[in-house]
Amino acid sequence: MTVPRLIDSFGRKHEYLRISVTDRCNLRCVYCMPEEGMEFEPSDKILTYDEIADVVRVVAEMGISKIRLTGGEPLVRKELEKLVGMISHIPGIEDIALTTNGIFLGPRAAKLKEAGLTRVNISLDSLRPDRFKMITRGGNVQKVLDSIDTCLKVGLTPIKLNVLLMKGVNDDEIADFISLTKDRDIHVRFIEYMPIGHSDEQWKSLYLPLSTVKEVCTQQEWDYESVDNVKGNGPAQNYRLKGAVGSFGLIHPVSEHFCQSCNRLRLTADGYIKPCLAWTEQFQVRKVIGDDEALRQMFLEAIGTKPEHHEMYKFLQGGQETTHTPTHRRMSQIGG
Fold this sequence. Notes:
single chain; 11 helices; globular; GTP 3',8'-cyclase activity; iron; 4Fe-4S; Elp3/MiaA/NifB-like_rSAM; rSAM_sf
């Protein structure tokens, strides 16, 4: 039997699945979750490791070769190493990455690598202890910095740091983050604030276009060059300071969307396929896990609904109607 490939109606070939293993998190970052009142899915609604592995096995036959485990915070899920090991033994899977806030990563980095984890992305929006504590509502930045050091020691590289830029909050740290790339295999990616689950006035007041990063390089009189050899699946435009070991990248989903090259699907912790991060469309796979043909057909149905682009730029302009209904789910409920 010829297994169909995951190619959408615009000819985009999908090789990358982002899997959220939990909607829970040990932090409450100001742009991701409210400080209190967040309702989490009960444990019996969350996909088991066996169910996730079953989904990966089927989609690997359809061309998925790259997996990213996300949350919430994926390391609040017990024995995540077990899931990494299960996925790493599935034929066709070539790359398994993890997106984490880094708080719990250090003590588990070696076991995760041994299980088959390829690399990590660490969310880090400030290097300053007080500011980091404010943004995360209680986090300890030193634990994250220690985790970065541990990952470098055990070889979980390249390490990518995801920095969500917010106007008037952390934009004065751009030079500090880029400086991290000078001597170590660290790749900083500055990310525009996306209106996922909300497009209110607070989001608009914090939104910052990434042209600011290049302006800072000019102010610092830094020479930098474009590079295209940074390992990973991401849509970043990557640059390197002359003579630096690492790199920095710009991911601007709002001002310069990269939908035309999108090769990713998402599986939420409660078992929904999301073809596009921005819109409400989703497909519940749990009911068909165990029936490989039905699961294949659901993925094909989902990818058939994927729109050409997400239209988030319209939220900046205000008052413009979108062609689809924006999602009401927060990023932590979808998978970062």
